[in-house]
Write a structure and sequence with these properties.
The chain folds into two domains: 182 residues, Ribosomal Protein S5, domain 2, CATH 3.30.230; 128 residues, 2-Layer Sandwich (Alpha-Beta Plaits). It contains ten helices and 13 strands. It is found in: Cytoplasm. This is Homoserine kinase.
Length: 318
């Protein structure tokens, strides 16, 4: 028997919600944009094989791979339920570039844990799973945060709560929005992107951040897409991180001229996103970014919708 799980790419922050907003992404042409994990019955304990276009970026020693950490964490979690973990052979299909700002590590984490949970007949509930996912993300980035793992796992647009027993909740999204997502082919580590941020912010910036985030969430719940799009501005990270991304200013200018409602940095970068409502304009922007923003052959550009499903089992075979 085998189980295959897919976990989509995600965009964190979404400009207006630093560390508290995230959305899952799926290309409109149906192509996959996320990692897959396959589990089969193992002969002993744990084994891991890595395949896929970005597998060469992963450590050779499986004990240094986050998927192994997920296996250990799941083992500890179900032991508290007096359950033993089954021997598994896992295959990670690494389809997302590392350090891209598309939730690459979260995709591997979510796919691995969802596969393990499915393999063990869903011993852990959603809250327990999200908690472990956040902890695993913290091992990669240095701090526990959920703005990639939550949308990757649950789908749609997620607002991080992380209080009162709630980790995140889904907020309404706009089906007419196209998300043009461009990865230039270079890498920016999450830790480096955080190091460039100031340790303190002006009160005026903090107030602007809170006002725009509140207005965005309100606009989503009250179905005001124009208001929501106008709030997609970043005073926390983009003024500092944009200098790490070659060609960002030019890309932003062309996006504005092409009819984009908003443009920003996906997660910690270097991927950028633009929100549009006109598909021909989105295609025009995609072509321009492909020719002018991508730095090498590893870069790519997709037109996406939000992925409403999140992580899912693609198939089971006996």
């Amino acid at each position: 028997m085998s189980i295959v799980v897919y976990a989509p790419a995600s965009t964190a922050n979404v400009s207006v919600g630093f560390d508290v907003l995230g959305g899952a992404l799926t290309p409109i042409d149906g192509s996959p944009l996320g990692d897959r994990v396959k589990i089969t019955k193992g002969d002993y304990g744990f084994s891991l094989q890595c395949v896929g276009p970005y597998s060469h970026k992963l450590p050779d020693d499986f004990k240094s791979n986050i998927v192994y950490d997920c296996y250990l964490a799941y083992q500890v979690a179900i032991a508290k339920l007096n359950k033993e973990i089954l021997p598994v052979a896992m295959t990670l299909e690494k389809n997302l570039p590392v350090g891209s700002g598309l939730g690459s590590s979260s995709s591997s984490i979510v796919a691995a844990l969802e596969a393990l949970n499915a393999w063990h007949d869903y011993l852990l509930d959603e809250h327990a799973m999200l908690t472990i996912m956040g902890e695993m993300e913290g091992k990669i980035s240095g701090s526990v945060h959920y703005d990639n793992v939550a949308p990757c796992y649950l789908g749609g647009m997620q607002l991080m709560i992380n209080e009162g027993g709630e980790i995140s909740q889904t907020i309404p999204s706009f089906k007419e929005w196209y998300w043009v997502v461009a990865y230039p082919g270079i890498t920016i580590s999450t830790s480096a992107a955080r190091d460039i941020l100031p340790s303190q912010y002006r009160l005026s910036d903090a107030l602007t951040y809170g006002r725009r985030l509140g207005a965005f969430v309100h606009a989503c719940h009250s179905n005001q897409p124009v208001l929501a799009a106008s709030m997609l501005k970043d005073v926390i990270a983009e003024p500092y991180r944009s200098q790490l991304i070659p060609g960002f200013d030019q890309a932003r200018l062309f996006a504005q001229q092409s009819g984009a409602l908003a443009m920003g940095i996906s997660g910690s970068g270097p991927t950028v996103f633009a929100v549009m409502t006109d598909l021909p304009q989105a295609e025009l922007l995609k072509n321009w970014l492909t020719e002018n923003f991508l730095q090498n052959e590893e870069g790519f550009c997709h037109i996406c919708h939000l992925d409403e499903q999140g992580a899912r089992v693609l198939g089971k075979e006996l």
